[in-house]
Amino acid sequence: MSQDARLERLLDFLRRSPTPWHATANMAERLEAAGYRCLEETQAWRLSPGEKVYVCRNDSSLIALQLPAQPLEALRLIGAHTDSPGLRLKPQAAQTAAGWLQLGVEVYGGALLAPWFDRDLGLAGRVHVRHPDGRLEGVLLDVDRPVAIIPSLAIHLDREANNGRAMNAQTEMAPVLLQGGKAADLERLLRDWLAAEHGLEEVEVLDFELALYDVQPPARVGVEGELISGARLDNLLSCFMGLEALLESDGRQGAVLVANDHEEVGSASACGAQGPFLGDVLRRVNAQLGEAGEEGVIRLIQASRLISCDNAHALHPNFPDRHDAAHGPALNGGPVIKVNANQRYATNSATAALFRDLCREVEVPVQTFVTRADMGCGSTIGPITATELGVPTLDVGVPQWAMHSIRETAGAHDVEHLTRVLTAFFNRAELP
């Protein structure tokens, strides 16, 4: 498999996935092309050994399963999340000031706000409409051209701008959309965009979940193209690598890819890692292919292993003091095992040993991250899924800079590194 070809697929996936709904749809499209069958949660399931299936919830979370030909005894699970921090439109988004139609926004997750100023912004998400015949439909919308911008205030009018002044998302970050526009123009624009993208005419917009995004495309950066720069690397990069590994695996083992929404806001939702989605799916699969009853479910989960993939903080050349001296992962230095004694990450020595052995098997370097003892530590879907299911889990990821910025940076070689390890995990015949 050519590394350049894989990176081109990654850049295309990032470009076409401005929201969790788009990312899920694009993953489902690749699964369908690879022979995976879509399951509907409201229908009865009929599963066969060796079959490949997937299921979506809320159009923003996805679980894909490669069922083993032999009896279902253990699963190799890879988890990631489809959402990223950013700016979402408020339900009554239209507002006007100084002769401009603007958009009221709400900050989703722990976003770095400063990089959002002076960017060419598109608009994307999910819109629900009513057709003239009364039928309701949810459709994806992607206005992939610069239609909005959040202009900075000139330094002449704010001499303290470079002195760490706080930004107020309510009063200072409303994007400008249309000069001379009125509040009613927003619904007209939405209908126009729906007509242009989907050919929908004479529909009524009932509701929407829309986000702004930077339309600058992702790119390879650096003299030798050693970096990947783009939006939503956290955590679409892990979704991409997990999907690549699943599609390249040999198909002999029970393999699962879980891509949850809402990680950036705590995972407490019907389709988030703290919700019942994964548990529901595993119970239904086990009921048909595994040992019957609750004891069978518990035995399956305890025999399985989960690798939670979410990017790690790389050592920043301008801020080396923000890392523990012995735990500063380098870009292109290999995947990172993330450890936290207070269970902000789910890694323990047993699950870390499995991952180190996988890295040895495919000759990939491996690194370790532990946050400084005087700094707080983020978390992932790993501890949440482990708590909900009880499955032995570890947290890993590729190192990156500028996490939660509108544009993030990771190492181009690390994409190949971690994909090879995840593929080996899916192919692993025996789990410790």
Write up this protein.
Its cofactor is Zn(2+). Pfam families: Peptidase_M18. GO terms for molecular function: aminopeptidase activity; metallopeptidase activity; zinc ion binding. This is M18 family aminopeptidase. The protein has 432 residues and is of the alpha/beta class. It folds into 2 domains: 3-84 and 231-427, Aminopeptidase, CATH 3.40.630; 86-214, Aminopeptidase i, Domain 2 (Roll), CATH 2.30.250. 28% of the residues lie in helices and 27% in strands. The protein has 10 helices and 20 strands. It has a 9-stranded mixed beta sheet, sandwiched between helices. A 5-stranded mixed beta sheet has the order 11-12-20-19-15. Strands 5-6-9 form a 3-stranded antiparallel beta sheet, with no helix packed on it. α8 links the parallel β16 (336-338) and β17 (367-369). α5 crosses α10 and α8 packs across α10. The chain is globular and about 65 Å long.
